[in-house]
Amino acid sequence: MEEKFRRSLYPELDDIDYGIVRALQENARLPFTQIAKELGVTEKTIRMRVQQMQDEGVLSLVGIVNPVKAGLNVQAFVQIATEADKLDDVVAVLNGIVEVRLVVLTSGDYQLITQILVRNYEELSQFLMKTLNKIPGVTRVNVINELKILKSKYKFVR
To answer: Which domains does the chain show, CATH number per domain?
Structure first.
């Protein structure tokens, strides 16, 4: 893909911000002095731009854990249908459950999609029977087991 086209996918980022994001997504511990040198600006400019992007919610510098390496060998997506007036309550409960990595509001027959991470299928079974199925307002679930991750993208700019 041509660089100009890739760059045009991110019109809210100017060239300096784009360069910062590009560098930090490869290595969030990269020294600002090195990024400044590569972009031809001062270290202070990089520091200020990073802080501004963090304040605006554009950029988060976080460590990403590989679930499998951390012992969470079973991952599943669970579609959840709820009673219309219980959706917010169900989301609040899901947000407090450690096995739930992601909660997404969707359209269609299921209002929510969640990603569940557990150590094994016994834990998944227990989670479904003893936790998820007991949340008031949940009317139906559909479990989709992840068999193999074919792409996991954390890079947003190239």
So the answer is: 3-55 (1.10.10.10), 74-145 (3.30.70.920)
